[in-house]
Amino acid sequence: MKQYIVDAFTDELFKGNPAAVCVMDEWISDELMRNIAKENNLSETAFTVREGEGYRLRWFTPNSEINFCGHATLGTSFVIANFIEPGCKTIKYHTLSGDMSVEVNNGVFVMDFPRYRLDPVEVTDAMERALGVRPTAAFMDRDLLMVLSSEEEVFGLKPDLAAIGGLDGICIAVTAKGTEYDCVSRVFAPELGIPEDPVTGSTHCMIAPYWAERLGKSKITAFQASERTGVLYAEVCGERVKISGKAVLFGVSEILGKK
Prior knowledge:
By secondary structure, this protein is α+β, with helices and mostly antiparallel strands. The chain folds into two domains: 2-114 and 244-254, Diaminopimelate Epimerase, Chain A, domain 1; 119-238, Diaminopimelate Epimerase, Chain A, domain 1 (Roll), CATH 3.10.310.10. The protein is 21% helix and 42% strand. A hairpin with a 2-residue loop joins strand 16 (230-237) and strand 17.
């Protein structure tokens, strides 16, 4: 089985967020997918199979299946558009989070995702202990989003990952207003085997609506301040969020053996 490694949300190798992508003729066992994802030890490995006019898409972290991943969707779309269906302009996916579509436009992939809620939650001492700074506000959906008072706090954050793992939420995100970009963020998911995620498309379905409302604009340019860094372009469209980015191929390999 062929596997592609794609750096997503970047046009430069060794930046953005690497995702492994397996485009298959038929499904392999869940156990094998989990083992491949664990062996890859990337934040996400995507598996996809053609289904009707689109593709069934699933995402696995090193220790579990997840219901939604943005950067691995971008990586999968890059592989399909360049190696499986060269020249295609639209890719449709069926996922655990519903149907999604991706438009391909001169190397830019525009992904149409569901918008996350922004349910306010109390800022707690546990959040402050985990981050080392006290958030000014916090919101919950699948992920926990905490707002910090400055981008310097985001850049300099040295969280207690064990304490981060004790907070509610699949991904634990921090954000602040940016200077060069509309906003900056970092995202942690130690409970998924991901200490810090390099660039997180899914959580920006929460981050982008937050800043769109506060900045009074529907289009947001976001910078994720991980070690690898990445840039996301988001547009809030009612109950959907369009997140755009580029990708670059790192390598192609052959997975040997089946179970």
